[in-house]
Structure formats: C-alpha cells, structure tokens
Amino acid sequence: MHEVGRGHIQAGPGPGSSRSASGGRGVSTPLETAGRLLQATALPGDIRLADPTLPGFTAVDYHRIACHLIFRCRRCGTCCTTGDPIKLRQEDLVQIARHLKIPVNRAARKLTVTLPGSGQNKPVLGFKKVRPCKFYDPVARGCKIYSVRPWSCRIFPFLGIYGSEDQVLVHRSCPGSVEAMEVLTAALEEVRSSPDYAPTTDPQVVMAARRWFNDQLGSL
Ligand code: SF4
Ligand code: SF4
Predict the structure, then answer these.
(1) Any idea which ligand is nearest the CA of 133?
(2) pTM of this prediction?
C-alpha cells in the first residue's frame, strides 16, 4: 500500500494548522520562498564545497523544501485516517511517552509494532493503531499529541530522504499538497516576470539562499 504521511493538524479549537500553528517555523511568503528558491538553485550544486556546513541538497530537494514552507494543512484528516504505516523513531516514542506520562517501555508495548522489513539491529517502529491513527481526534479534526507527533508526521507531505527523488511528489489525496505546488508555481512565475528580476550568478547569493532554506528546515 502506498505510504501516506501525516501532517500538521492540531486538535483543539485553534486556527487551522498553518505553518505558524505547527510549532514555531518562521513565516515566509510564497514570493520570498520563490525568490530564495531561484537563488538557491541558480548554480550547480557543487558550489556547496565552498561551505561544507551546507547539506548536499539537490535542486529538487530545494523545491520540496520550498513547497513544504508554503504548505498549509487543510485539515481534511485524510492522512491521519488513512496513513499506514505511521512510522516513528525511538526519539519520537520517548517524547510521546513523556507527554503521556508513562514509561517508555510501556508506551512501546501499548502503542507500537515493529514494521516488516526492519533490520535486526535497527527495528523500524510504527503505531499499532492506524486507519485512523489512535491519536486522531475526529471531532476537532486534529492530532491529540500534536506537540510530540512523530517526525514522519512533521515532514509530510513534501519532505523525506533528501536526494532520493528526482521530482517533487504531490500527494493528490492531500489538498494542501496540491495547493502548495500551485502557489509555488505561480509565485515562481511572478518573480521571474518581475521587471526587477535578474538571475543571479553570484555564489555568495546562492549560498546565502541555501543557508536560508537550511535555517528554515532547522526550525521545523
Ligand atoms: S500522530 Fe496520528 S493524529 Fe497525529 S499527526 Fe500523526 S497520524 Fe495524525
Ligand atoms: S491530507 Fe494534507 S491537508 Fe489533509 S489533513 Fe493531511 S496534511 Fe492536512
């Protein structure tokens, strides 16, 4: 079955689950993100050698990050009710156990299974209860453990393992994902057609834009 991630939906009466509601990411406009994207991808990737602290992201990776920054969850609930498996890291489990005020080994027994395909030394955990996720609140249409939701939920729908894909994947079942791609496409067009726009060839500008994306990722 196609794996569906889970996003940014927060239970409770608060506003929708925009980035600003999802835990402190800085807010950038689509136009700013598009402008930075054009700068970050203006030169071949090997200029990162000039700044070894920058990750080796591809142009596609920068597009995916840009989409994710623009993304706004529409709280349809599809990902939390159909996602299978819902993976979690050991550190996610620790956070969730702390949040639920139960010992980690009890949380592991109660909440998780080892997913098929796990390595012996490196089990991959998933929630035991999915479709819907145990933590999905259908009334509030949000996540009951939003502040400690697993990393796999935080990075849905655009992020994942960098460099592993050669195109940006849009999840058709996720309206926020489709919309983000449309908004980014329009913003890129607007930036490119501005009379002030001039493609950069300055490595310093390119690296500054890449650092900007890296900083944005760091605050996810
Ligand atoms: S933990 Fe469950 S309810 Fe919360 S975001 Fe992830 S899938 Fe959705
Ligand atoms: S499918 Fe997309 S829009 Fe719907 S709740 Fe999940 S992340 Fe939000």
Answers:
(1) 1
(2) 0.82
